[in-house]
Amino acid sequence: MKPMFLSIYLPCLGVLLCLASSTTSAAERPADNVDLDSGWKDSFRLASADGKFSFTPLGFAQPMFNLHVDPEATPASEGSGFVLRRLAIGFDARFYGRVRAFFIANLARGNLAMWDYFADIALVPDWLIVRAGRFRPWLARHRLVAASMYQLPELSPAMTEVLEIGDGRDLGVGLFGMLFGHLEYGVGVWNGEQSFTLDSPGIIGEEVVPANTDFEVGGRLVYHPLNILSCAEEPDFSASKDPRMAFGAGAMFNRRHGLRLQWDPADDTTVTAYRDQVLKLGAEAGFKMSGFSLAAELFAKRAFLIDEKDAAVQAAFDAEHRGDWALGAYLQGGAFAVQKKLEIAARLDYADEALDRSGLDLYPTAGLSYYIFGYHLRAQLMYRLALRIDSRSEAGQELPPTHDIFFMLQGAI
User: Fold this and answer.
1) pLDDT tens string 321-355
2) Which of 42, 64, 269, 408 is the most buried (most CB within 10 A)?
3) pLDDT in tens, 195-221
């Protein structure tokens, strides 16, 4: 991976140094034209003396061990093992205070998986910024947090199971900003790439399914009644003396292709694929002060069948409860037992993928984070209990719970 790493960083670094050095002639250039900020308090940063250009390399690795215990499996620990949760490299570059170039990719699976790559242009600083590229749509607060600054090593099942967001990123363009110092907004249009859909043309059975290229539109509006509560990190690591609070809501709508239906109860034939329209809604609240943090979100999703005139598709769609409202919610909190060193966190997730089916999942979760060297080096321990009530076996019967223990180390720059 070293040649790939160098091929990404060296050209970018060379371009930025050339830009920084080309503003004046050699005779006029001051000796300290380029400042090197290598302090660990925030990040490693290369910047011009006048502050017009900066380049911040990004990178983090998260090896993790997961002990999974399922009483119904043989052996009960099936699925346990080590995994490289994330291995990311990238950069964050700023130009003239109005332009930002951001790139980060994941190498954890042995190949270069592009995560975020976008450019921001501040048309009106703070108020109106345009973003183009591949980035996370503005909907779920929990999904907008930096991947190296989560309070717990695993994302909320209430979000991932209900919203079906995959890696949560998509190609698009959007506008965002902060109005009057308290009202945050973000609106955009994306390709509509989701998990469980095809992002390129393919064949299911004997049917050719088109690529999922329909547009997805959405936005998020957040009110900060006190001090600004950003999505940069989940813990209150800085131990804010003044309270920060936020309340918001978001929505997204798009058409999808290539979803699978397994059977048709009318004549026992296989329905291979269908199209639908999906609506996703979210509401959020957050609070931080003196090392204590609290966040809660509610998610709802419903799909609407496009091929409603096809009786076989409609029957299978209804039988699998694809048109039911799905609902998810979580409440998460954390507090530092030792300021900037040891944090205790807990979360309760609720996920119901089809309200009319009476099956739901509950996930009580607790964890510890020990900050050896801030976010640059830390250890996280998390326990999650999965309680499943599934009416498809026997109505109201609680299936045997499963247990997960996660231990993760993080090294980051």
Assistant:
1) 788 899 999 999 999 999 999 999 999 999 998 88
2) 408
3) 444 444 444 445 555 555 578 899 999
Q: Which residue has the tokens 């999505």?
A: 231
- Taking the CA atoms of 289, 293, 294 and 295 in sequence, report the sign of the dihedral they define: positive
Alpha-carbon dihedral angle through residues 171, 184, 139, 56, given to the nearest 10 degrees: 50
pTM of the model: 0.81
Closest CA to 349 of 331, 372, 368, 366: 331
d(CA 364, CA 348): 5
Q: How far is CA 402 from CA 128, 140, 385, in A?
A: 47, 26, 6
CB-based contacts of 185: which residues, under 8 Å, 6+ apart? 175, 176, 177, 178, 179, 219, 220, 221, 222
Sign of CA dihedral 5, 7, 8, 13: positive
Omega of the bond leading into 75 within 30 degrees of 0 (cis):
yes
- The sign one gets for the Cα dihedral 345, 346, 350, 353 is positive
Q: How far apart are CA 250 and CA 221, in angstroms?
A: 6
